[in-house]
Each structure stands twice: as C-alpha cells, then as structure tokens.
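Hello,

I think I submitted the manganese (II) ion job twice by accident. Can you confirm which output corresponds to this input? Input:
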Amino acid sequence: SEANQAFVTLATSDAYCMGSLVVGKCLRRHGTTRKLVVMVSPNVSREACLSLEDVFDEVIVVDMLDSRDRAHLFWLGRLDLGVTFTKLHSWTLTQYTKCVFLDADTLVLCNVDELFEREELSAAPDPGWPDCFNSGVFVFRPSLETHSRLLEHARMCGSFDGGDQGILNTFFSDWAIKDINKHLPFIYNLSVNAIYTYLPAFHKFGHQAKIVHFLGRNKPWHVPHKQQPFTEVPQWDSNRNLEKFVNLWWAEYYSHTKLQEN
Ligand code: UDP
Ligand code: MN
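Support: Only one job matched these inputs. Its output is below.
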C-alpha cells in the first residue's frame, strides 16, 4: 500500500544536505502521497538535520562504520567505497516495501508517484553508456537479504567506476536486455549534460522532463544564487537552459511552503 512506500535520498555532508532538502521540498510541493526519507551520516550538522526534519518524515542517521561484522569486513577490504556503502543502506529500510531512490542532486519538476508502479530494479539509461543504468534515480525493494548480497558482491567484485553505480550495474546485470519495463524514460533522470551533448533532443523533448539530475562535478549549491528578472530563454542557448534549471533549484531551496499538514 501507499503507506509502505517512500522516496529515499542521502546526504553525507552539509552541502549535500542542501540538495536533499530541495529533493524533499519539490516532492512535497508536487503533492506526493508517499513517505519521505533522508539518510544522513553522523558528521552532518545539527542545523542541517533540523531543516531536513521540517520536510522529511524520517531523518535516519546511518553509521558509516557499521558495527555489524560483515560491514567491518567490507570496510577493511574496501575503504575506497565509502559513500557508496552508505547508498546501499537504502536496502535496509524494510519498514517500506517499495522505494524510489533520488540522488541529492536531483530536482523533481512534477508529481512522479507513478514510479511506484515499477519494479526493482527500474532506472533510466546513463547518458555516458546507455547499456548501464544511472543510479541517481531508481526503484527498489528494501530487503536485508538483498542488502547482504549487495555488500558481498561489492566486497568480491568491487566497483568498476569506484561508486555505487558500478556495483549496482554489475549486480542487476540483466537490466540492459531483460525487461523493458525496468527502463525508465530518460525524462525521469534528465542529466543536465544532455543539454550540451544532444541539444536538438533537448529542444524536442526537454519540456517533458520530470526529474532533472545535476550530474557531475558542478552542483547547483556551488553556483551563487543571483536573483534575475524572468526572461524567455532561447532554446539554442545551452548555458541559459542550464541556468534556468539552477534558478529553479534555488527557488525551491528558498521556498517557504508549509510542507507538512500532519
Ligand atoms: N553523496 C553524498 N555525499 C558525497 C557524495 C555523494 O551524500 O560526498 C550522495 C548524494 O546523495 C549524491 C549521491 O551520493 O547525490 C551520488 O553522488 P553525486 O550525485 O555527487 O554523483 P553524480 O550523480 O554526480 O555521479
Ligand atoms: Mn547525482
């Protein structure tokens, strides 16, 4: 049922908390009926946690150095997979039967509750290698068994890209060919670099975007916010199209909507 379903995001620093806050705010503003969960690491400041608590149903502190034995083994072997390990914690949220994970650097533009009709593991193609899914937006089913298998897989095989996306793609390795229903349309994870790499497609389909992903080194919270008068953005102007999304992100960050009725 809907009560057992949640959107999940993750922040291991105060900077990424700014992103998670925006993820929560835009999901609320677009009227999601699902629960909102954010996982934070213990180093996140009290202030950042408090602002997340205004928006999210649950702020869960996940210990990066998990005391359970298998986790210690994992850490001893693979210290390089730090933040990645934390994302895999999503599978331990067994108070929910189905979840949608959203990276902290995503911006939701409309209601996307229909994602819960999808099955594990549903995700959109990665723009750099479309036979891999991008792990910024994915549908999954929490399960301690899957969690253990994922950790074991990570320990044995590592991650070909050093992050969670590598682990998840070799674990859910039949994604590319098995079931087209597990391919989310690209508009659910529109990486902003597509504005530059395939501008004509962005002209044609960009207005249908449901979730924008600020993938890569430059995050919206790095860009100082400047208040600008609204002007029409020419479609051919990649920089200004990106700027428009960054402005939207800041507008969401500063929004004062009363977020929770309950
Ligand atoms: N993340 C985090 N702290 C970090 C790096 C990453 O909390 O220092 C989380 C955050 O949710 C982020 C996700 O892991 O959105 C994936 O990292 P990122 O979005 O930076 O990778 P990209 O999408 O650019 O490949
Ligand atoms: Mn991301």
